[in-house]
Amino acid sequence: MRRLRLTAGYTIEEAAEGLPFSEAMLQRAETGLSSLRQSGHLRSLLERYGVSDERSIEELLDIQREASSEEWVSDYKDVMTPPLMSKFVGIEEEARMIRAFHPLLPWGSLQTESYARAIFAMQQPVLEVTSESVDKAVRLRMRRREFLTRDEEPVRLHAIIGEPAFRHVIGDIEVLQEQCREIVMLSERENITIQVLPSSGHRYRFTGDFSILDMGNVLPSQVQVDNAWGALSMSGKPRDVGVFSRRFERLTASALPPEETPEFIRTLAREIK
Questions:
Q1: Greater confidence, 62 or 266?
Q2: CB 3.0-4.6 Å disulfide test: which of 95, 111, 140, 243 passes with 213?
Q3: Within this chain, do residues 36 and 93 fall inside the same structural domain, yes or no?
Q4: DSSP class of residue 163?
Q5: Which domain CATH number covers 221?
Q6: Which residues constitute the signal peptide according to the record (predicted)?
Q7: How many separate domains does the chain show?
Q8: What is the pLDDT of residues 3-43, one digit of tens each?
């Protein structure tokens, strides 16, 4: 960033003039002590420097996001955190829209703290990790939840959840019932759309979790899938994004309409034993 500024012939004061961040913030970003928090700020700065090559802009924005997320994700790094999580969280935080399908569990950012803790506690003896690792994983999940519930420009989410997610007792019955109530409540937010894919009937189905992150004009859309080893895989290739987008469209058509989903979840919650 410093090289770009100097090449363009700007001082720190001139570069920051009229832009929504201070000279001190730009100085810290150039020295690697922090990063510009919003992708729009970096894009405005690059435009001032005369950087017009979209590929170069996208690469710098990608680096900025990863660095920005690394600052706080590092507090949660642990053996339970997949290696690509910092990059995924950085992109997730800046996404305009997320489309997610989870056939067996609620999408992570929709989970209550009690439900998330029960999920990670189940994995504790398998992964042979400490209770501190579980605590960190839960805190990260709750932090990611803020992307959906923040007051300013919350991320839009369209989640399709399989019916088994509301029948598998995680933790205990009270934990699952609380989770059901929480999803019904979150579905009332303007930025969140939730559908349930019933187990009965002739419907299009897919076996794995995936999400598609629409980055608007900032970056190409990204598709994320969980693999069998519990790690993240991500791709921005148009063909990959296209395949999963078509899958999501089919799942959307097969799932219950959003307006019918809350009552369906309430009914399932009453049937939990």
A1: 266
A2: 95
A3: no
A4: G
A5: 3.30.870
A6: none
A7: 2
A8: 788 888 999 889 889 888 888 778 767 655 456 767 778 88
What is the b/e burial string over 114-135, where b = at least 16 CB atoms within 10 angstroms of the residue's CB? Answer: bbbbbbbeeeeeeeebeeebbe
Q: Read off the CATH number of the domain in which 57 is found.
A: 1.10.260
User: Is 154 inside any structural domain?
Assistant: yes
Does residue 20 share a domain with residue 91? no
Q: d(Cα 191, Cα 96) in Å, to the nearest integer? A: 10
Q: Residue written as tokens 């961040």? A: 21
Together in a domain, 33 and 114: no
Q: Give burial (CB, 10 Å; 0-12/13-18/19+) of 10.
A: middle
How far is residue 50's CA from residue 212's CA, in Å, rounded to a whole number? 31
Tell me which residue range forms the domain holding 169: 83-271
* Angle ∠(144,146,149) on CA atoms, nearest 5: 140
